[in-house]
Model the fold of this input.
Amino acid sequence: MLSTTENAASYFVDRHLTEGRGEKTAYREAVTGRELTYQQLFDGSARVAGALMRAGVRPEERAAMLMLDTLEFPQVFFGALKAGVVPVPINTLLAAPVYDAILRDSRAAILFVSGPLYETVKPVLHDNPYIRKVVIIGDAAEGSGTAFTEFVADTEALPTCAVSADEVAFWLYSSGSTGQPKGVQHVHSSMKSTADTYGAHVLNLSNTDTVFSAAKLFFAYGLGNAMTFPLAVGATIVLFAGRPTPTDMIDVLQTENPTVFCGVPTLYAAMVAEMDKAGPPRAQLRRCISAGEALPEDVGRRWHGHTGIDILDGVGSTEMLHIFLSNRADDLAYGTSGTPVPGYDVRLVDDAGKDVGDNEIGEMLVNGASAAAAYWNQRDKSRSTFEGVWTRTGDKYERRPDGRYIYCGRTDDMFKVSGIWVSPFEVEQALASHPSVLEAAVVAARDAEGLDKPKAFVVLEKSPEADLDAQLIEHVKSRIGKWKYPRWIEVVDDLPKTATGKIQRFKLRDQAVQ
Done:
């Protein structure tokens, strides 16, 4: 049955007016200071909906969003939902050929693009057979497209359209940690599902909170942090359009004074290194969360030492929309990914699909209401990932007898040494706990006998010592066992990552031939 109340925009935007929050600040931009009240979010999204209809964009067509984290982002996203159009946020850090592939794959009818990103995508627009209109956030150069202010000017506000809770609402393209991104389709009820589970049971936000997510809006983790959870309770969100460097993030914590901060392990590690030199920010944080990759235990403890606040590390995926396995404020164990979030069930299975026991490694499957409907145009991949109520994560985990889960690596990242499984992440954690190492990645490399052994790529926090390799090897042996140490160590300037901070180990494997 179709209903306006089933539209995600109704719950996350429209109801705040009837609940008396119209004049409250919903969004504030760091640096520029621009603000958007809940009333203005309602009005702006309704005008976007009307402008889409006026532009001839029909329900169920796709609206690509290559947009920075600015006030226009939530207006476009929810405006599309109100019109029955499917918004497709896109990673802002890709190259033109990847944008070409995504725009063609999604068959987007309209593209919203932030001015600073336009030149990157411009080369692939002239022969795109689907895009009928380009809207530029900011000043539009002559002939390049329509400025956003002009697009929404003098348009009639469109009321929120009636939809089914199971109707596809928006797409998110996977981060591409193992190859080309895939279009993940989410239904209208998915956002509220994550708000009722992780948002309610782990974050415990209230309308007095101010939330700042360094993780960007274009991917699932950032979308939940800076839209779903705070809008569910009427909180205020701080947006930062630029690249989240550690010094900039520390500055935002001091100037905007958020109560909740959402980051990724790579950023936390870099911020901790900066705090080691300059001290912690003056902020009133009460909660910090992390996802994207497993948080190294050493980073969590050092962050707590500087700020007095624990980082609640969790695990989510684009396919599940947000975090389904997490540490909690009253139940935290660094070095683990915590326990299932209420509302989700998880299993660990072996290669034959049979459940494994405690202290055994298996692939994690998860069951929850926020699961995606399917991958767009990838039937075989959909069938192998979404198995009835269960979604395969592609992550290997070990369950401890106390019910906590320990991340072991992606299915493709695991390898055996002397017949025993090695978790790259376990070795990486041990390396990262050495004072000279900022971050590390471990992959399998073949030795002279053709056998797999660990090879480490490390980014240094300080100048290397003459015997660094020997120090690191002994350090790993002393922490996790004599046979797991890296046989080769290569110092690099940085590690290949997705925009969500996930290490692309498949790229390192190509470099690991000995």
About this structure: The two ends are 61 Å apart (CA to CA). The longest strand covers residues 390-399. Residues 38-54 form the longest helix (17 residues). The chain has a mean pLDDT of 92.
